Amino acid sequence: MSRYWSPLLKSLSPYVSGEQPRLPGLIKLNTNELPWGPSEQVLKALRGAADDDLRLYPDPDSSALRRAFAAAVGVLPGQVFVGNGSDEILAHSFQALMQPAAPILFPDITYSFYPVYCGLYGLQQQAIPLREDFSIALEDYRRRNGGIIFPNPNAPTGLLTPLQHIKTLLQNNRDTVVIVDEAYIDFGGESAASLIADYPNLLVIQTLSKSRALAGLRVGAAFGDEELIAGLERVKNSFNSYPLDRLAEAGAVAALEDHDWFVASCARLVNIRDGLLQSLQAMGFEVLPSAANFLFVRHLQHDARTLSEALRERAILVRYFDKPRINQFLRISVGDEDECAQLLQALPEILGSDAL
Question: Taking phi first (over 0 means left), then psi (-120 to 50 degrees means alpha), and beta for anything else, what does residue 123 get?
């Protein structure tokens, strides 16, 4: 640590992302990226936007993109906030909307950026244990809090919380903000954005990184009551009033408008996911039900870390979490048909006689 670091900086434990090696022939099933590229309309829009107008600053309000998100989700443009991926929006949300007088509540097994943001902004935090089946027990969130946040589907489990349960939580928690992080909602869930008209304390956050195959473009959005959106804008404009560049806006608008590609792509991913789930179960894996683009699995006869290392020796990366309660699980991103076939070919070699 540098002696020039502030006390806050010294206290932080930053988020650790999945490794991103660039080796030829590597099968990356560890970072939940879509296994194929974005629609041709997106690529065409990006090529068209790469012109002399790049010398000009982008629209600070991202008006066209906000309109596109509003049309896609079914809200008003004034109920939309956009940023550089959902992570930036999450950071703004913690700073703008979470209250420091009481702990921020989130699941004990979830996206590990949440405690990082609490530390960065000096917020109290309390992790609420998942049930034994790893589902989120929203009834346990009926306690004093400075805000509530959880992913739906949850990560890394992939389990979906029914919309009616979220509605009950909102009915019982009207004094602080509830954030539903919907990075994976398009692979099998119903968005809570339909509830924002009735619950002014609800903020729903989505990203184009997963279902729209735009992880490299970094575009996210939040949907909520106009007052919540105004709070996020206030933080953004105190930090960087030009969060999205012209290329990102052009590509994002095209992605949101290409509905046919989006529907077909999600259906293809879900079909591959469900087939992979059945194949892994046939090999003796326990697989949690998933509404995301990944599976959370364990094999009772094999150590998860050892499995991960054996797959890596075969140029297949999966995600291992060395954390309590889940250190015998692997998170496997759903690849394309060929990648999943290679995974299923490698596993019996590793499992030996335990592959049923």
Answer: beta
